[in-house]
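cron nightly-structures :: item 1 of 1
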Amino acid sequence: MELLKNTRNLHGMNQKLVLIIILAFLSTNKVYGRSTSPLHHHHGHHHKHIKGYFEYSSITCRAYTASITDFGGVGDGVTSNTKAFQTAIDHLGQLGSVGGGSLLYVPPGRWLTGSFNLTSHFTLFLHQDAVLLATQDENEWTVIEPLPSYGRGRDADGGRYISLIFGTNLTDVIITGNNGTINGQGSPWWVKYRAGQLKYTRPYLIELMYSDGIQISNLTLIDSPSWNVHPIYSSNIIIQGITILAPVRSPNTDGINPDSCTNTRIEDCYIVSGDDCVAVKSGWDEYGIAYGMPTQQLVIRRLTCISPTSAVIALGSEMSGGIQDVRAEDIVAINSESGVRIKTGVGRGGFVKDIYVKGFTMHTMKWAFWMTGNYGSHPDDKWDPNAIPIIQNINYRDMVAENVTMAAKLEGIAGDPFTGICISNVTIGMSQFAKKPIWNCTDVEGVSSDVTPQPCAALPPVQGGKACEFPEEKLPIEDVKVHMCYYKPKYM
């Protein structure tokens, strides 16, 4: 027992010694992590560079920073930095929440790397001239288990490649910069996917699981192998000021996919995608039903999207845990297949309800509105044919569209119609090549008010010019404020 006691004491002393060494090392970097800057402050700038200081907006300001170069990082676009990133994060992670946590600074350069795991009370910060290059060496991508609410990979049975930037069971984690770039170098992955040569599901650029207090902001993401940003089983999330770019024919390059998440804010983003710009999800068929974690309390605002083959905002198709209380406003859609699309089918179960959309401007669209209850993909043959999704209380108002091929395709499920659909104050300008029927409605029920062209008979006009609902009370995540933080890195 005495030996065990002494061993524990020695272990504790070693931990304290490591912490002291790290603090001493970081203190040489002249780091500042305050929320009030002595510099002249210009409102409206998320980040800037004044006299050697970087100023940036963050939900948490960090007390300590280090540069990736302190851990052997080389930004030449050739040298692998996977070990340098993981070593840096592991060292900084030992600080925990001391003084507000720590920040890893990525200076100008091209930083080739494989996947690395983040830690709690931590910020990854990319300089505007920093580019993270995802390695194209599959050996640097660990294969991990399928998501429990999906039961299998999306591209293939079994496991999936870990995401480039990954984290699980984290608290207070931030990925930001002054518009630094994360380049997924996805082209070889797209080729293998199309050729059916993948044994596992392609990696995403950013995935955070089972985490709370997330900020992803002021970055440019390009050419992801698959989805770009995927928070899952997480809460209290801000995704802000993100630019996402991918070829419009690249497969499954969804922009932002909140998945079984609560209290999420997506704002001020610009997305060009080969798939849905924002896809709201919560699990796939029997696996999502069993996991039972909905996506709820989601606000999407000031989003601009270009997606010629997909939706600006999609709800589903993997929605078996449920989707509820989604609010979208001030959205611009350009040359996209559909504005808002609800995708589900028999076997999904779950629900999509209490959806509120307003202030939507659409230019050159195939459909303004699209709902489908016959989306047929299933993870395996164990899906339940009696698992019927519930779609109700769907509200669209204050929308303008031009050059539209078809106003709406609204297809519910025979015997289980989509109900409570409301469309008000909507003007749709049809293309000279418009197709008929302009409104195609089956197995749906609802009302309309002040809509041009006149909707289908399933959405009869309501007397008195009723406006569809949009909640006035804020969601909790809308009251979360970002602070102006600043620091002076050692390496400029």
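cron nightly-structures :: done
The longest strand covers residues 351-372.
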